[in-house]
Amino acid sequence: MTLEALLVAARAGDARATARLVTIVENDEPEAAALVRATYREAGRALVVGITGPPGGGKSTLVAALVGRYRERHSRVAVIAVDPSSPFTGGAILGDRIRMRERFLDPGVFIRSLATRGATGGLSHATARVVDLLDALGHEVVLVETVGVGQEEIEVMRVAGTVCLVSVPGLGDDIQAVKAGIIEIADVLIVNKADRPGADQTVADLRAMQSLAAPRVGSWSPPIVRTTATAGDGVADVVDAVARHAAWSRASGDDTRRRREAARSAVETLLRELLTRRFIDAAGHQGRLDDAVAAVADRSSDPQTAVLDLLR
Amino acid sequence: MTLEALLVAARAGDARATARLVTIVENDEPEAAALVRATYREAGRALVVGITGPPGGGKSTLVAALVGRYRERHSRVAVIAVDPSSPFTGGAILGDRIRMRERFLDPGVFIRSLATRGATGGLSHATARVVDLLDALGHEVVLVETVGVGQEEIEVMRVAGTVCLVSVPGLGDDIQAVKAGIIEIADVLIVNKADRPGADQTVADLRAMQSLAAPRVGSWSPPIVRTTATAGDGVADVVDAVARHAAWSRASGDDTRRRREAARSAVETLLRELLTRRFIDAAGHQGRLDDAVAAVADRSSDPQTAVLDLLR
């Protein structure tokens, strides 16, 4: 099938065509640039919601519940589960979670795991491109789920218009430490498994962390929402909180600021890659690069000296 | 103090001078390039051990116990705790862990948290530069601890000659999923808190994951070591397993392969940054870059088209 034909089918809601197009972008296949050019300008309409937090927080159950809610009002919803990937095999794990599978039976829901790291700019840029693609293809809501709370998850969350951080009662100190980094980018704080003992303490901990975090850009104060996703409790409150944040973001111009940052990151990443590819492809540069690497590896030179020599 | 004077003091074991030099490299201060040039060629001698694994595994306790063991045979040991950082405030958290503080009283142990993200190439390159610096300054053993098991932790672990993955009994499914990615780079598998119920199951799970992981480069088969770090049990076995791996690595040439990969990554990262900086600094390019970003942000262009225009 040609790219054109795939686009027609995917816009009409064909899941296999959509999956094929996502793969093209994810793996940076030869048609990827043409595909991005054909769809990029149509994106920017979807509600893009990020869901992040430490492992064990019940995020997949919450995402499944949110998908159900959004499907009541929207005809097409997409879920991207961004996996910590294997550097060698690039295996995707989250996609076949059982609760997700239930949603797979609904043709209005497109679900995909992303794990490939080969794409220019790493996983966060691959995610941004897939979100834009699904948006352009007509998904009105795109949920982006990550497991983990490291810097990469923070980068991935930058694609979202609204970021939800999911905590649960009773996690250890390590996890509390980890959350301090991500709390500054969270727009909605969720305490899931709120029927467990310790939920009040978790809410108090989150408030304390909020007060310690760097002041936010703009006037939004992230609400704390309690959920018990397995029973569906509080899920409507999350939908409401996300909608209020999105409305605030449009009214305050914060969404424009986010879009500009995302655009800067995409442009600079691509510029960096293309400049480097052009330099290396120039006559003789590949051999000189290999020599520089060998000199740095055996410590007869250092990286700075070797690269300045290369550029001379 | 001049760079020269700081180097003399740091080589003699002065902790404040060492800390100052680490800060210069970490923050990419103006003297950083000169400092790397002055020390890079002397590095490559230390035993560099990575300790990673999901939060809640008792890694800090294990690292403290390992430091004690290594100090029995080595005069200078360094610990670098690589933190998931705040994208805005860059706060470091792990450094003031209580058990670490005990070790702080030992002048033969240098401990530092790394969290800054401003450095060229991100946290993994900052970590590599700090490891090289501490190595060149005379630390015979450098332990690098990360919290988390995402792609960034995997990148950080590439600085280590031997990577230890710490698991614990009784963590949830999410964490098992996360480990699948990192297990392929682990040279020694540790089941900490091995006195807890479920330790046998964790060992069995690790063996199952090993059999599923991509085949390793070379003939090393990662051993599984049980520890109860709080009681000191098994810590000597970890030291032995690391020593055996390091000996295998030297004998098989695997360490040469690792060094070459690290050198390639350092050279390519720096090349990418310098080429981009030169391009942007050229007359008129900053303004054109800003225009390209604005066009991409309002979706009147796409990143690929905008960057190709820039390069024309």
Structure description:
The structure is a homodimer of 312-residue chains. The first copy, chain A, has 312 residues and is an alpha/beta fold. Chain A has two domains: 41-252, 3-Layer(aba) Sandwich (Rossmann fold), CATH 3.40.50; 267-311, no CATH class. Helix content of chain A is 53%, strand content 12%. Chain A has 13 helices and seven strands. The first copy, chain A, has helices spanning 3-11, 15-26, 32-39, 59-73, 98-104, 122-136, 151-157, 173-182, 199-212, 235-252, 254-281, 285-297, 303-311, and strands at 47-52, 77-82, 109-114, 141-146, 162-167, 188-191, 224-226. A seven-stranded parallel sheet of chain A has the order 3-2-4-1-5-6-7, with helices on both faces. Chains A and B meet through α3, α7, α8, α11 and α12 of A and α3, α7, α8, α11 and α12 of B.
